[in-house]
Amino acid sequence: MFGQLQPSVIFGFLCTILSALWLSAGPLRADMSLVMVEEPGCIWCARWNADIAPIYPKTPEGRAAPLMRIDIRDNPPETIEFARSFQFTPTFVLVVDGQESARIEGYPGEDFFWGLLGRMIRDATTTETAG
């Protein structure tokens, strides 16, 4: 079939297909993670660990923002710019491209946690594509 077509026609067709695939891929996703600031003996951290931790990596939120844990007494990673210091555990910080985007202080329970986190990710994704 392609034997009768000119090479320039085939090349143009392939360029059109590749351009369409490139444009349909959308913008590149930012590097996003969820930092959990915790400490030993924190009952709300333990509650989150029981309620959420086992399923978190399997959820759309967990795939969009993989979990990273840090102890409140440790120095924060130098690769992340937090908006302010930590006062409560657990504190959940959504980090986008190394900068704090939003945070949840405390654990409000499973239903509220998923709703708040979903909104944080949605807002960060919307801001990312708009900017």
Write the layout of secondary structure elements.
Blueprint: H1 7-24, E1 32-38, H2 43-51, H3 60-64, E2 67-71, E3 91-96, E4 99-105, H4 110-130
Parallel strand pairs: 1-2
Antiparallel strand pairs: 1-3, 3-4
Largest sheet: 4 strands, mixed
CATH superfamily: Glutaredoxin
Q: In DSSP terms, counting alpha (H) and pi (I) runs of 4 or more, how many helices? A: 4
Tell me the overall shape: globular
- The structural domain count equals 1
Average pLDDT, rounded to a whole number, is: 83
Strand order of the largest sheet: 2-1-3-4
Q: Percentage of helical residues? A: 40-55%
CATH topology heading: Glutaredoxin
**Quaternary form:** single chain
* CATH architecture classification name: 3-Layer(aba) Sandwich
Amino- and carboxy-terminal Cα gap: 45 Å
| Helix/strand order, N-terminal first | HEHHEEEH
- As a percent range, the share of strand residues is 15-25%
Radius of gyration: 21 Å
Structural class: alpha+beta
Show unreliable segments.
9-28
